[in-house]
Design brief:
elongated; 115 residues; mainly alpha
Length: 115
């Protein structure tokens, strides 16, 4: 076929499953998760090409494991990890009473002047 021509035979079941798997593994609504998911699934697809008779089983296992352990995909996992890192950093900065160290509860803030 000539370059630049799209034919319906180019989109077989394997290609459609691969694209859907990229979206599911990457996470819906996450750009970077989609990029990482597409790269990972492309590498796995190329690796599984030698085992073409097991390719759908491998893809099925990836979908099931992704839905079980990362229901929001790689992008959701990355978001959760980023939020947890921020939370842990804030907890480390806070004092024993739950206030941020250096801030006096109810006291004047820096820059406040008595009138």
């Amino acid at each position: 076929m000539a370059p630049g021509f799209i034919h319906p035979d180019d989109f077989n079941l394997t290609r459609m499953v691969t694209v859907i798997l990229m979206v599911v593994a990457g996470g819906l609504g996450h750009v970077w998760g989609g990029v990482i998911g597409a790269a990972a699934i492309t590498l796995i697809s190329e690796w599984a090409r030698a085992y073409y008779q097991y390719q759908f089983i491998i893809f099925g296992l990836i979908v099931v494991l992704t839905m079980m352990y990362m229901p929001r995909g790689i992008g959701g996992w990355l978001d959760r990890r980023r939020v947890m890192r921020r939370f842990v950093a804030l907890r480390r900065r806070s004092g024993p009473g739950g206030t941020v160290t250096g801030a006096a509860p109810g006291g004047p803030r820096t820059g406040d002047h008595a009138a």
